[in-house]
Amino acid sequence: MSPSPEPSRAPRRVGSARLVVAGLALAAVAGTAVWLTRDRTASASPQGGATAKAGSTEGGLVVPAGSTAGSPFGGGASAAIVLPALPPAARATAGEIGRLAALPPGDDAIALARRLEDTADAASLPAWREALLRSPHPAVERSAISVLARLADAETITALGEDYGRLPPEWRGRILQVLEQATRPEALDGLVHIVEADTGEKRSALAMSALHGLAHLGTMDSTDYLLQQVRSSNIDHALMALGRVSSRQGVEMTRAAAAGSRGFEGLEAGVRQALLRSAAAAEGQLARP
């Protein structure tokens, strides 16, 4: 009697710890991110993969073989690549994002995108962050920007700041949009961290977007931070950001500083005038329908 065939073995670690996943029938169009939850042993990869314990059901984003322009992995990927495993609370969202990526443009895709955005919560943020960083699908990109701008806290904002330099240049605008449109007050410390970490002589696009994000928050704390920057070497960029403050409270704080409120008594006349111009610009934006 011939021996029974050997049972299949788990994939072995190859090269720079990249996992090649064989036998997966990827139904998505090439370049479209597919989200799968499968039992596997995974180890860190140069593309940012995370470690998943053997026997677990932790799954991650799978980028199909042959991903081309716009893929953070460049063109001509030879096989599917397993990316970071997601927390349990984010896996259902990941599956729904995969459904959105597989739908053709139309009413069904619009309806699903709206539902996903409306039901997104803090627990789903890891799935949306991965979608922002990995998916070349336009509808997924738009929804990810919308959700992250609305829900990202300081930890998520800081992580996106670290992700920025790892993305190809044509994808970095995604992160800039999230920073500039931030609306959750808890994003404050993350935006400040990005500004403070930029010590170059010329402010980077990332730091400028963080400053604009602080203006968009429009809270007392975020406006106060921008006003404090007026008394530093960052004055020009701070004045530009103050011209975008998104709240009446922020406008009045800017005007009060120009009038010499506590802590701003010694400002030069030219700086006071510049603050008044910033307040007027911000108020003009608030008056727009």
Short description:
By secondary structure, this protein is mainly alpha-helical. It has helices spanning 88-102, 107-119, 125-134, 138-151, 154-164, 173-180, 188-197, 205-217, 220-229, 235-242, 248-258, 269-287; strands at 34-35, 60-63, 81-85. It has a domain at 188-288.
Question: What does this 3D model show about the protein?
Answer:
The protein has a domain of 101 residues. Helix content is 49%, strand content 4%. It has a three-stranded antiparallel β-sheet. Helix 3 crosses helix 4 and helix 9 packs antiparallel against helix 10. The longest helix is centred in the C-terminal third of the chain and has 19 residues.
Question: What characteristics describe this protein?
Answer:
elongated, 289 residues, disordered N terminus, HEAT repeat domain-containing protein, mainly alpha, three-stranded antiparallel beta sheet
